[in-house]
Amino acid sequence: MKINMRIFLLLKKITIRNGLLLRGCVFAHNVFQVTT
After folding, report:
1. Can you tell me the distance from the alpha carbon of 2 to that of 10, in angstroms, rounded to the nearest whole number?
2. pLDDT tens per residue, the chain (36 residues)?
3. First and final CA of the chain: distance in angstroms?
């Protein structure tokens, strides 16, 4: 159970980081389209 919790937290951290990266990319893309 402890191992499962560790894996769950790791996955959660990875998905949050990926979500932030994706949001950043979309934001940068939108800004780039607006400025050009």
Report:
1. 12
2. 688 999 999 999 999 999 999 999 999 999 888 877
3. 52
Specify the 3-state DSSP secondary structure of 1: coil
The residue type at 35 = T
pTM over 0.70: no
Spell out the domain ranges in the chain: 1-36
CA dihedral 31, 32, 34, 35 (to 10 degrees): 110
**Measured distance CA(7)–CA(15) in Å, rounded:** 12
